[in-house]
Amino acid sequence: MSNKIKLIFLGTSASLPTSKKNLTSVLINYQGQNHLFDCPENVQQQIMKSKQSIMKIKNIFITHFHGDHFFGIFGLLSTMNLNNREEGLTIYLPEKNKQNFLDILNSAQINCSFNITVVGIKKEQIIYSDKNLNIESVKLDHTISTFGFIFKIKDTLGKFNREKALKLKIPEGPLFSKLSEGKSIKINGKVITPNQVIDTKFKKIGKKILYLTDTKIIPVNKKLLDSDILIHECTFGKEEEKKANLVKHSTSVGVAGFAKKIKAKHLYLVHISSRYQETDNILTESSKLFKNTMIPKDLDTLEIDDY
Ligand SMILES: [Zn+2]
Ligand SMILES: [Zn+2]
Predict the structure, then answer these.
(1) CB atoms inside a 10 Å sphere around CB 34
(2) Residues with CB under 5 A from ligand 2 (ion)
(3) Average pLDDT value for residue range 7-15
C-alpha cells in the first residue's frame, strides 16, 4: 500500500516578501513527520495556514545563510519552546555557518526545553535516513556555501518470499532483514543472495523530489536524474541572463533547459524576484522549453503517492 507525500509551498518569493507572497520555503509531510526546507520570516503563520503542525517538524534544512532562507528559525524555535516541545529537532545547514548559527542561537537566549542537534553539511552525502526515506545534500553554485536537497523515497527490491526463505532453512529474524535490504547472507557455509528469496517483479521505485535554491544552473549529475518533482529557483526572466550569472541565480530559460537535461517530470519555479508582479512571461519562457512547468502560489499543495 502506498502512503501520501504532502508537499506545501509555504512561500515562493525571492529576497523580499510582497503583500501576496512570502519568502521561499517548502514543507513536506510524510508518514506523520514534517520536514521543512528553508525557514524564512513568517514561516510560522504559513505553516499554521497550511494546517500542518509546527510540533511535528522533525528536520529543518537550511540551504544557505542568506537571510531570506533562515531568518524565521529563531521565532519558530521559540514557539516550539513555548509549546513545551520535548522531542528533539535536527537542523541541517552548511558547515561554514554552523558556528554563526550557534552564536545567534545562544545570544537569542531561547533556552530550549528540547534537544537541538545542528548538523553542518560539508559535502554531497545522505544526511538523513530512516526506514523509507533518504535526504541527500547537493552542492549548489551560489555566492556563498549553499546546498540543495534530494528527498528520495527508498526503492524496494521486491516482495520478500517467506516460504522460500524458510525452505532454504533461514531462521526468521535479522537474516530476513538483511536479505530484504539486498545483502547476501551466509548460512551453514552456503551463500544465499537476495534474489533467491525476493520476487523482483514487485520492485517499486520511490518518488524523488529535488529542492534546488539559490543557485546558478549546476552541471548534470547522475543522482539528479529522473526526479518526479523539481523545485528550482528562478529569480529572473530570460532578459536578465547576464545579471543572473553575475549574482549566481537562475533564469526561466536556464531552469527549463536544466529540467530537460535531468529528465525531470514536473518543474515548479520558486524564489521568483519580487520585481515580477506578474509571472506569466516567466511561465511562458520556461514552458516553451519544458512543457510541465508550473509556478506555484503560496500555500499550493501537492499530494503524491510515495511509490
Ligand atoms: Zn534567496
Ligand atoms: Zn541566496
Answers:
(1) 21
(2) 66, 214
(3) 97
Distance 215 CA to ligand 2 centre (A): 8
Give the residue from 146, 172, 201 where a domain finishes.
Answer: 201
Mind listing the pLDDT tens digit for each residue in 235-247?
Answer: 999 999 999 999 9
**Measuring CA to CA, which residue among 1, 26, 52 is closest to residue 306?**
1
233 Cα: distance to centroid of ligand 1 (angstroms):
8
14/149 same-domain check: yes
User: Which positions are catalytic?
Assistant: 68
As given in the structure block, the three cell numbers for residue 176 are: 530476513
Burial profile 198-220: b = 16 or more Cβ within 10 angstroms, e = fewer: beeeeeeebbbbbbbbbbbbbee
Q: Which ligand is nearest to the CA of 248?
A: 2
Beta bridge partners, 126, equal: 136
For residues 139 and 254, membership in a common domain is answered with yes
- Ligand 2 center–CA 53 separation, angstroms: 27
pTM: 0.93
- The reply to whether 215 and 196 lie within a common domain is no
CB neighbours of residue 292 within 10 Å? 15
Domain boundary among 145, 168, 201: 201
> What domain range includes position 181?
159-201
166 and 81 assigned to the same domain: no
Number of domains in the chain: 2
* β partners of residue 61: 37, 92
Q: How far is the CA of 91 from the centre of ligand 1 (A)?
A: 18
248 with 277, same domain: the answer is: yes
